[in-house]
Amino acid sequence: MTTILTFFGLVLLSLKITGVQSIGVCYGLNGNNLPSKQDVINLYNRYGIQRMRIYAPDHEVLNALRGTNIELLVDVANEDIQSIATNPSAAANWVQNNIKNYSPAVKFRYIAVGNEVSLSSSIAQYVGPAMERIQSALASAGLQNQIKVSTSIAGNLLSVSYPPSQGSFSNEAKPFIKPIINLLVQNNAPLLVNVYPYFSYIGDPVNIHLDYALFTSQRTVVQDGSFGYQNIFDAILDAHYSALDKEGGSNVNIVVSETGWPSDGNPPAASSGNAGTYYRNVISHVKSGQGTPRRPGRGIETYLFAMFDENQKPGAETERHFGLFFPNQQSKYGISFN
Description:
two-stranded antiparallel ribbon, globular, 11 helices, 338 residues, 12 strands, 16% strand, 8-stranded parallel beta barrel, alpha/beta
């Protein structure tokens, strides 16, 4: 019996050390043909998807999540950031109405104060202050140890990303990101980064080959000192880790808050075959506990974009074809999530 317990303890320790991660999926609502919100929650449960990201605190979704084991990353919508940063009561009201009223029946994991806020946007200056306000409101509600506050950034805040060891935030980005990094360090919270090898590939197909973007390269493509890279996903992450190191954030972990590949809208890169390959391989990679060359031996918490094709999503045609499921709830790729 002692041997069995010891073995079980070692297994649990191994899981803790490697940080084996559940896969999350982002649930967007930009469609007029999507299933009911309760049906969506049921679909998450049916496929064993244990984490979800939503881009605003939709109360119908929150009610449907009550009593489930799905952990939630919920955004403060970009349009609400300025009022939360400048109105002393706004953050407390937001936390009360959207978090405290649902916790612990809903398992909140992170609050992302904004998604890909542009440096040129009028709200960029308010992201850090709004994060502070939300953090204080969580502390007042006694939830600061359960829910971490961050923001979700795009990869364009780096001025240098190659080689990954030289990754650094641009001079334009530093006034925005440095106060955020300080907050993350103070509160032991991760930085949320949206990682899209698809966009890297279509932006520079001469130098970035498809196999490097799809995790199918059988060789080291980039040798960076002692670190070798077979896929650009790891290279993007490690460029951000290098940038964090340079700004006092060496202990800040990165959570991949979006990653995906479109199945249509820009052939031949955007295809069902490429998308299925990408999703299968990224799931396998982030769950392996392999980590990245610069941060080895750990799972990479990752949220796939997105649950459904969203026919009203603005932007390029590809934006409407990132779904893992069709709106009729049929799986596009027959993927196993966990």
